[in-house]
Design a protein that fits this description.
179 residues; alpha+beta; 10 strands; 15% helix; globular
Amino acid sequence: MSSRNRLMLPLTLLFYVAISSAQAPRGPNLEVQREAMQKLAFLAGKWSGEAKGTRGPGAAFKVQQTEEIQYKLDGLVMLIEGAGRDPETKKVMFSALATVSYDDAAKSYRFRAYNNGNYLDTELKVSENGFEWSFPAGPFTVKNAMRLNAEGDWVETTDVSSGDNPPRRTMEMTVRKGK
């Protein structure tokens, strides 16, 4: 063996040892994700009730609201489908589809929602019996807050604020879980 080859052999072995000892990228921890998603188990099911609010200056609305929530992908994702129908005509006035998942690396919930060709991806802050999410909309901040009341109803509000002005309530929803 030449002196050059004798020098290359230890370097080659060192290279292979370094590569084999390097950690592979950590994959998602599915059990941690499923456990985190169970904190939202109280939502699963079909809900119905009423939502009312305003869409602008003086444009009030009132709808019969339904929310259908189910786990998908073996408990890793929660699918939320909401629809608001005109109480008289039953025509759909509002519809949205959302997913909730847990990012175990970031230790946070993600809320992705779709409505009228719009898309939103934001953090969902989960509490014991509810959640909050918010997003910027131009000069405004839109904040949704959901909680279960003493009767077990889902009560959700949407407030819009701008600068130092006090928030303005634009939607209130109360739905009850079906039996």
